[in-house]
Each structure stands twice: as structure tokens, then as C-alpha cells.
Amino acid sequence: MQKKTHDAAMLAEAATAEADRWRSRDLAVLWHPCTQMREHPHTLPLLPIERGEGPWLIGRDGRRYLDAISSWWTNLFGHAEPRIAAAIARQATTLEHVILAGCSHAPAVELAERLLAIAPREVDREPLAKVFYADNGSAGVEVALKMAFHWFRNRGVEGRTKFIALEGGYHGETLGALAVGDIPLYRRVYAPLLAEALFAPSPDAYLCEPGETPAQRAQRAADALRDLLERHADEVCALILEPRVQCAGGMRMHDPLYLKLVRQLCDAHGVFLICDEIAVGFGRTGTLFASEQSGVQPDLLCLSKGLTGGALPLAAVLATQSIYDGFLDDSREKAFLHSHSYTGNPLACAAALATLGIFASDDVIARNRTTAARMAGLAAAFADHPQVADVRQAGMIVAFELTRGGDKRTPFNPDARIGLRAYRAALERGVLLRPLGDVLYWMPPYCVDDDALQLLASTTHAAIDHAIKEAACA
């Protein structure tokens, strides 16, 4: 027994040393995204991950972490999903990549056909009919913005050069995407480089006045949007929003009525509607696409993240035939000359086709409803937590708004770093929660089971308590 204990201790020590070596190698050469690198490795833990299994990430030290945020909202069916891996492997033996300008290949064509077949559709509205590929979500947003502006220009309309976006929205971090984002942490530094956008009030239900329902809040936000459009309609080419949930803005959720009203306003003023479903698409909010809950079809639909099940980077922008036709001309200046070297990469398209195949074979949406109900039951206990001002849910997304004394009017001082403290405490308990400020959220892979959800709930509760106590003692 003593020898086994000694051997286990030696193995654990060796694994810890191996992880430390990788941390040192990493920090010597890598610049990580969305990170103040000065905080690594002491303030902000750095996790050397060796492999993934279902909803779990396994570190080089052997520690297991529940991936409660689906690796930045990309992973749908769990890490190393064998059907997606097999599809990528098969494609890699045939064609790994080919230029999509002047060439074609089966995965790109078949994926476009299948995306158009499942895209949101409104009766008596021209359907989405063409697919343009990009490499990631930000690039997809850039494509949609450029298409909307360029379409009007091709028609000889010079004045429609602005976009309307929502306060608190986020659409990526390239300059075009940042221009229609409204999160100061990302936007402020680059503001001098950004095109001018107009921002409409968010329909965020968290901002409801006392006695106001989410639907009434949505109506009030739509009324403000109407006023904005009436003042600027001749300057605006498109409105862009995230349906149902403003994700990076703090998992802000709104009533589906809002998108229905927005669709009507865009039609009335001749403005394109761009739905950014990069994070909320593919089942995250309870339906395949979040815009379905409003019965709305956009003019341009941006998809990425879960499109490949989280396996490879790929984005797709779906457009109507009328938008496509607006670029057909003898002049190359009227062509849409946007490009990426890896546009329509066959490996990524194969992963996406496998992802859609899983939706078709596994009845994912129905299974998610059952999982979401379990998540709701576990989240309900947080409503009485003294530091939780709001518990909100949209399908497979649950968010907890932490404030001082649970009062919406008194957020924590940002210097207290409540979210960061909770993040570290959760890691110690084997759960990866990456907060948005002082908003903790659950967005796990769809394969998460009851035991993992129980761990997620108990860890979140303990992490909140630990963060509050630690901040009080600091």
C-alpha cells in the first residue's frame, strides 16, 4: 500500500512538472488572445491542455476540467467527436485545400446546399439562396457589412454608408466588426480607426423598468429604433444584431418579439437586416437558429463557431438572390472581390457536413430541450443567492448576474475582480468558467450529462461564495 501511494505521488509530481514545463515554453513564445499577458501565470492561471474527451478537457498534469463554455462557444457535441474527426480524416486523404476562386469542390457545394435547405424562412419572403464562405466569425461579419454597403453602391445609391447596431452588442474584433460593436473594453482604443455606426437601445430584458415585462421592454426598444431609422434611414444600408442573446455583452437576453419588430422596421425603411447567429446558431438558444423564435428571416445570415462542431474555423454568410444579383455586371468593380486564402476549405466543409449530419441523425434539438430543463432546475436555486441579481436562460445558455447584495443598481467595483476570482475558484474544482465581467454563464457542449451538470452547479455556487469572501478580505 505504501509503495502504491509513493508511486502515485511520484506520478503526480512528474505530471505537475510536465505541466509547468509547458507553461514555461508557452510563455516564452506565445501571445494569447483576449488576455493581459502580464497576468499570466500568477493572477490568471494558464492551463496546458493535452486532449479533450466529450465535455472534458484533460491537462498535461492529468487534471480534468469541465468545459462549461464550449471553448468559446464553438463546441457542440464534445471534444474529439468521432464522426467529425472521421469526416476530416477522410477528406484529408482526398483534397485538403484548393483555391475557391475559379475552382469548386464537393464539400463546399454540398454544405451550401444543406445550409440553404435548413436556413430560416418566412412565408412570402424571398428565401436565402447563396452562400459565401469566410474563415471565422469576424470575417463573416465583414463580408455581410461589405455586401450590404456595396449592393446599394452598385445601384447608384451613394448615401447609405452607415450601419445600425445595438448598444451592448458584439460582432468581432476586426475593424469593420468592431465598428458595429459597443463594448468599450474592445472598442475604445481603436475608436479613431472605426467607421461611424449608429447605436440603438438594447432590448435587454435585464434593463426592464419595475413592472415592465421583457416584451414591453422589446417594444420600447423597437420604438426607439423606429425614431432612429426615421432620422437616418437614407444614410443606413443595414442593421446588424444578435438574435435573442447578446453574448459577449454579458449574455443579455431579450424577448423574441424584438426581432419581429426589427424585421418590420427594416422592411419599412428599405434597410437590410443582418442576423449574426455566429454564437447563437445551431441549437444554442433552443431552436436551430435563434431567429426562428421570432418567425423572422434575415436578408444576410452570419454563421460560424458551431458550424463545424468546434473542430475547424469556418464561417458562412447566407444571402438572398436579390443581393447576389446586385453584383452581377460586366464591371469587375461591381463584383464582390472579398476573399480569403482558405475560403471554403474542404476539411472545414467536411467537418460542417458531419455536424449537420449529427443534427439530422441524433434529434439534437429535442435532446437539448431535456438538458436545458435540467439546467433550469439547477439554476433556479441561484435566484435566492444574496449576490445574484438575475438568473436568465435561453435554451442551452444560462447566465448569472453578480452584483453587490443582488441589487441591479449596485454592481461590484470592477477593481474587486469578482468574475476573475470566481473563475480561479472554479478551476480549482475542475470547471472551466470564463466570466464576462461579473457575469458567470453556462454554455456547455450538448453531450453534458447529469453528473457534470451537478458538478457545474455546485462549483458555480462555491465559486461565487469564494469570490465574494476573497474580495472582502483583499
From TrEMBL:
The catalytic activity, as recorded, is: (8S)-8-amino-7-oxononanoate + S-adenosyl-L-methionine = S-adenosyl-4-methylsulfanyl-2-oxobutanoate + (7R,8S)-7,8-diammoniononanoate
Amino-acid positions noted as binding pyridoxal 5'-phosphate in the UniProt annotation, renumbered to this chain: G137, S138, D276, H340, S341
Cellular compartment(s): Cytoplasm
Q: What is this protein called?
A: Adenosylmethionine-8-amino-7-oxononanoate aminotransferase
Q: Which SUPFAM superfamilies match?
A: PLP-dependent transferases
Known role:
Catalyzes the transfer of the alpha-amino group from S-adenosyl-L-methionine (SAM) to 7-keto-8-aminopelargonic acid (KAPA) to form 7,8-diaminopelargonic acid (DAPA). It is the only aminotransferase known to utilize SAM as an amino donor.
* GO molecular function list: adenosylmethionine-8-amino-7-oxononanoate transaminase activity
Family according to the record: Belongs to the class-III pyridoxal-phosphate-dependent aminotransferase family. BioA subfamily.
Site for Participates in the substrate recognition with KAPA and in a stacking interaction with the adenine ring of SAM, residues = C34
Q: How does it assemble?
A: Homodimer.
